[in-house]
Each structure stands twice: as C-alpha cells, then as structure tokens.
Amino acid sequence: MLYLPYNLRRCHVFAQNLKYLRIKHGFDQQQFASKIHRSVSTISEWESGKYTPKAGILADIAHIFNVRLDDMMNIDLSKVSDAAPSTKLVELTTSEESHIHTIRQLTPDRQTKVYKFATSQLDEQNEPDEEDADDDNVIDIITGRATAAGSPINGDDQDGLATMERVSVTDIPHGTDEIVTVDGDSMEPYYPKYSQIFVHWQDTIEDGELAVVHVCDEGVTFKQIYLDDDEKKIILHSLNDKYDDREFEADEIHIIGKVLN
C-alpha cells in the first residue's frame, strides 16, 4: 500500500471533500467561485489537489459548508453521516469572523505564526492548573500569634498579630486550627524557643496533655496540664526542669486548645 506524506495526504483529502461538499450543496464551480470570491480556475486547482488555500480561506470554506475545518482536512466526509455531530460547526460570532478576516490579510508565514501561537495558548489553557488541582489539599489557617513558655504573655496583644496562611494539610497534624510560636524556654528541650506548635481549639483537656491556656490576670502560656479533681486544682507543669510547677484554682485557668505535636 502506498502512503502519502502527511501534507500531501491532507491536500488530497481537502480536494476530495471540497468537490464532494460543493456538489452536495448544489454549486457548480462558477457559482462556488463567485461565493468565495475566487476564479473558476482556482477552484479547479483546489479540487485537483494542486494546492490548498491559505488558512483564512480554508476557514471560510469550512464555514460555508458548516463543517469543522479539521474534519475537512483529515476525514473523508463523503463517508460520514450527515447527522454526525463531529461534522457540524457552531455559527461564528462577529468577533470570530473579524479574526478570520484579519488572518486572511496576513502573508502565509505570518498566518503560520498566528496558528502556532494560538496552538500554544490552547495547550496552556488545557493544562491543569497545579494550584487549582491542589486546592483540596490546602487550607487557610491562623498563624502569627505566640504563646509563652515561661511567664504568661498578654493574649490581647497577640490577637493583633494573627494572620491567615495557606498550608498543605500534609504538613500539619489532622485537626489543627492554629499554628502558634513558642516564646520562652520552659518547654525545652522538646519545644525550643521560637518553635511552632499545632493547636486544636477546645475548652477541655485530659490529665497529662499539653495545652495552651489563659491564666487569669496573667496571660497565655503553653504547659503540660495535670488535674487535681479532688482539690479542684490545675497544675501547670514545665518540661524544663529549672521551672517549678504552678498550681491554680480551676476557675483561674481557661483552656484555649490542645497541642497536637
């Protein structure tokens, strides 16, 4: 079997389809030449496969016959059902017709440049947006505030430092509501000064868990919590041995959240 080079095959397919569609729509060569504003000899050369029109004229021809240009250049339309949706072309808008008119006035090399640029734009448009694709794995979370790991600090002052940041859910523990910076050394060596802790907001805590708490009349601090239910006391324990435990009445401590890391 003889295989034609790609460009010659396209030219041959176009020539066959042009003649088929012209006859199907009831045009003789003279009538079609008048409609497309070309000479009869030009139509004859197109149908013989001698050469194909420029891109803008090809688009006009496809529009006249209400077929896709890509189909006209690559598919034997005589073998395609009239009802096949792939051979139907949506009516051009005024803007699209204007674009075609502009392209027709370009030289062939400039038409090729327009085609290549349009193709690259289409490829770029069809590429999945990495940021959008990752949206399901990204959340907005509060950051910027600090908690003491030593003497409590003023929580009201910290509220003004809060900001929202987009983070990957794979980078934080499940349930994190806020990322807080440790300001102090009382939780060393496990939580050095300026390290970050991940806090889940809740107002209760289990015995021995780590939590960020508000101490009445003092401020916010990060400690290990021990509960003395009999005495109704709460003990704030520092992981750094140089700090003593501190004991408070239960109503003097407000639990802000549990530390997850």
From TrEMBL:
It comes from the Bacteria. InterPro entries: Cro/C1-type_HTH (IPR001387), Lambda_DNA-bd_dom_sf (IPR010982), LexA-like (IPR039418), LexA/Signal_pep-like_sf (IPR036286), Peptidase_S24_S26A/B/C (IPR015927). CDD domains: HTH_XRE, S24_LexA-like. The keyword Transferase does not apply. One of its GO terms (molecular function) is DNA binding. Residues 18-72 form the HTH cro/C1-type domain. SMART domains: HTH_XRE. PANTHER family: HTH CRO_C1-TYPE DOMAIN-CONTAINING PROTEIN, PTHR40661. This is Xre family DNA-binding protein. The lineage of its organism: Bacteria, Bacillati, Bacillota, Bacilli, Lactobacillales.
